[in-house]
Amino acid sequence: MESSEAPVVAAPPSRERLIGEGIRWTARWSLRWLLVAGGAVLLGLVVQQTWAVLFPVLLALIFATVLSPVTRFLREKARFPQALAAAATLIGAIGILVGAGFTVTPSIGNQSGDLVNSASDGIQQIQHWVQDSDFFSKEQLDSALQSVQDKLRGSAGSIAGGVLTGVSAVTNGLVTLVVALILTFLFLKDGARFLPWLHRISGPRAGAHLEEVGHRAWATLGGFIRTQALVSLIDAVFIGAGLLLIGVPLAVPLAVLTFFGGFVPIVGAFVAGVFAVLIALVSNGPTAALLVIALVVAVQQLEGNVLSPWLQSKSMNLHAAVVLLSVTLGATLFGITGAFLAVPVVATAAVVLRYLDEVVSARTTPPSTVPEDVDEIETPDDA
Description:
Blueprint: H1 15-49, H2 51-76, H3 82-132, H4 138-154, H5 156-190, H6 194-202, H7 204-246, H8 251-261, H9 267-284, H10 286-312, H11 320-364, H12 372-375
Helix pairs in contact: 2-3, 2-5, 2-7, 3-5, 3-9, 6-7, 7-8, 7-10, 7-11, 8-9, 9-10
């Protein structure tokens, strides 16, 4: 008679073992994230120390992405030599900006006197209202004005130091702009040779990935800048036309400010709108200021709900929360320049992450289930 043995059932792991494995897993990943955070801090310190060099390079890259289609047209269609095409493009762009400046400056000069007079009248009206009200007595108002005058007299040295600091900042800004323009010319002239050179010195395996990421980042950055310029132009036209209809002075300069402010998403348009509302309040009164607020809100709703989602979806795919947080972080770390460069940097980083995701998917998905768009990704053998 055959004897049957009962199947052996493995004993469940003990609580001590499970807890120990969980602690070891947490410790390993914590160490990895600490290393990543340390690398990020080190990278931030390097960027901070080399910012004087990196900033003009980043500006030149942004300028080059905007102007490169014109240079390519002159080189391929008009048969210009490379250097001549780059020089003609850059000189033409500078000429357009200078011409716009000369167009706006007379308007500012002609209307600034009226604006100052309106501001003085508005301040006097506020002063009369305060004196006639029961909230403040004339003695309290005179005491407050005297206190402000005393503080201004005591801050004369600080004001003088601030003027010198401002002159130094303007000088540094001009030097940075000149360097950025020179680099822009070089990028327009020789930029097409950079990625093949990077591919060659990096080797066939890493070079293929670097060149592909470079092409995608360049296309994304150029598309973002050109799309943002189109959105900013539409905003400026609507804001300028509305200010002219309302009768607000300095409508054209405010429209120009709206255009350039549009390159800092969300924050730039808000700041330009605040300037427009303040000028309308000082020069035309509260009714005009309310009309300008309604105008700015309507244009921003058109941009945020129609123009930007439709146009930007073709150039990049970033959530509005990511854009807002990146602008906030850039402004906190590097001021206005950080706010201006935040979205292009984040868009470029998103391109790199998407490419890495595609490469990982292509290497981990069985060949029969790989999507058609992933088949085209070059994934060189690392063996």
